[in-house]
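Researcher: I'm preparing a figure for a lab meeting and need a structural model of a single chain. I don't have an experimental structure, so a prediction will have to do for now. The sequence is pasted below. Please return the structure as tokens so I can convert it later.
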Amino acid sequence: AGGPKVLWKTTVAEGYAGVAIKDGTLYLNDYDTAKKEHLVRAISLADGKDLWRWGYPVEIRPSHGITRTVPAVGQKLVFSLDPKCRFHALDAKSGKLVWQKNLIQEYKSTIPGWYAGQNPLLDGDRVLLATGGDALVVAFDQATGKEIWRTPNAGKDVMSHVSLMPATIDGVKQYLYLTMNKVVGVAAADGQLLWSIPFAIKMAACP
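Model: Understood. Here is the structure written out token by token.
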């Protein structure tokens, strides 16, 4: 009648961010409203205590909540996209910053309405994002952040809230993405745009 036993609790900022769990550690994008800092937290799954916190100042006003995205956890690094399109790779054990990208400065990305809601996609030694702006999709080397390939963005599509989805169609490995006006398939091998289908979105593209 009392529900499941509560093992531990921790306070988080308002929002929709989910958690990633690996090797007994829970990774979460969070926000410190008092200090106005974006946070990435590593929390012990056993007792709910913070193993580390990494953050930096950025003012984010609540707009239907603050947090949106789930960190992606690789073999050694954690990848976090903040609400204002800054992308960070952190050491999973220590929280030390390894590399970072400001997508607005480097790719001319546009912050979506209600902030970035995309989850980074890990595939092999790569981490992928649909940046919008100068590129539709970009594949980065996980270890260094070096760009492996980019998909040309002839339509000048902006970043939507959608996350890339891997698929194999007709034997061709690709990544699917929904912009604000079309569904696309991008070749995993080299980022080539394989196909696109018109699909109009009125307010926000999310799924």
